[in-house]
Amino acid sequence: MNEPKEQAFDQPMIIDELVGSMYPEASVFDKDWIAQNITTILKATADGEHQTMYYPACGTDLIRPLLAYNLDSIIAVDNNEEVLKSVLSTLDKLGVNPVVNTVGDNAKELVFEMWGKNRKILLVIDDARILTPLIPERTDILHIYFPTGADRELENYFSKPGENTWRINPTLDAVNITRINVGGFLVINEMPIVSERGLVSASLLEIAGIDQIEITKRHPQYVMTSFYPDSNELHGMNRNGAIFHKKKEVAAGVLREVQEGIEMCNWADYILMEIERGNFEFLGNLDYVYELKKATLEFVQGYLKDCEKIIAEMKHDGVDLTLANSYGNDFAKRLLSSIKRIQSNFIGFIRTYDDLVFGIPTGKKEFDDTDLLSVGIILDQETSSYRSNIWPIALPYLQKEEIRQWVLEFSKLDIDKMFTDEELA
Question: Which helix (H) or strand (E) holds 326?
Fold first, then answer.
């Protein structure tokens, strides 16, 4: 049998035709989004390894990644028996008639040619947390994108979790990175870990031998999901996504240290988010406003010391000194920048709020919806409750006098003076 001649289908016109065939009822807006997702992934993975993919808890999302990564084969696992029907239906829309083979008691193998390339889908109908001989130990692409809650501890699902089960963790951790071949890719909900506002830096990923590559996230409505945003939400959604490219093998100990660094950053980011919402108790037990400066300083000192411990472990395990120190410097800069950003947001809100108050006519006792809108507070029509749309602190600031005092005090802190080398020592 002659091997088919592979055709290049990474041209916009061809991808638009594919998407139109797969989703004939979709709007132009939706088709454009889906096409962008496929196109950006094709570009991001062109220079890497992308022959094989393992996709636990795949739902109906199989043909999209097959095309987007230009795969030879996918091994996918899902306990929904409707997945096979959906995949066959999508292939039929594309004019593809696969050979379907039964493998063992609970798997189907689909073999077919598409765009000049022999392809294969092995679909295991089972719980993705159960390990079977059909699941590869290593793969070019590990694609983790599954329902909320699927990453909970195994004890929530199995009475006796043992050696034949694994907890699928949607993070850039040592287990997931190790499962990928060099040159391959890791997909974690197509979400970036390094961002402009977050504490995780590119230098930390570099220590793990990982690059973050930007893509357009997949469209949320054309896969099996419990989250279906309405049209207005779709048009306002952030499409910026990312996947991770494994450039080299890194020692398991170093990967665990990087994982520890990511977890530390994520927890600190969470605390900073709560502070920005006015939940200052996350800085510690604060009884008086004047304790805020000390608590903020101790918060920063504590995380810098934790970072230093991780750096020391990395150096002990052979990480390049310059790279390890670069991670430490990046973390310190990002941490202080986040605190200054929160303070700047507080100051910006206070000024806007004061302008509103001074402009209220004498005798008016309550703000109306127009007044609230000027400080970024809107009425959610679905829940009939107010929420902060611009400044997270807006609603708590208006509701509680105590919050106002904390915010005013935080806005007065001399951040640059507080965080000199002498103060942090």
Answer: helix 321-359
pTM listed for this prediction: 0.86
Determine the Cα–Cα distance for residues 42 and 141; give it in Å rounded to an integer. 13
pLDDT digits (tens, 9 = 90+) for 265-290: 999 999 999 999 999 999 987 887 78
Same domain, 347 and 243: no
Task: Determine the Cα–Cα distance for residues 75 and 412; give it in Å rounded to an integer.
Answer: 56
Q: DSSP letters along 52-112, please?
A: EEEEET-TT--HHHHHHTT-SEEEEEES-THHHHHHHHHHHHTT---EEEEETTTEEEEEE
Tokens 């939400």 belong to residue: 233
**Averaged pLDDT, 376-391:** 79
Q: Let me know if residue 94 belongs to a domain.
A: yes
Assess whether 385 and 242 both reside in one domain.
Answer: no
Structure tokens at 337: 């920048």
Residues in the chain: 425
Inter-axis angle of helices 401-412 and 292-316, nearest 10: 60
List pLDDT tens digits, range 147-160.
544 444 434 444 44
CB-CB contact of 151 with 168 (8 Å): yes
List all residues 6 or more positions away from 189 whose beta carbon is below 8 Å from its beta carbon.
144, 145, 170
Condensed to tens digits (0 to 9), the pLDDT of residues 235-274 reads: 778 889 999 999 999 999 999 999 999 999 999 999 999 9
CATH number for the domain that contains residue 94: 3.40.50
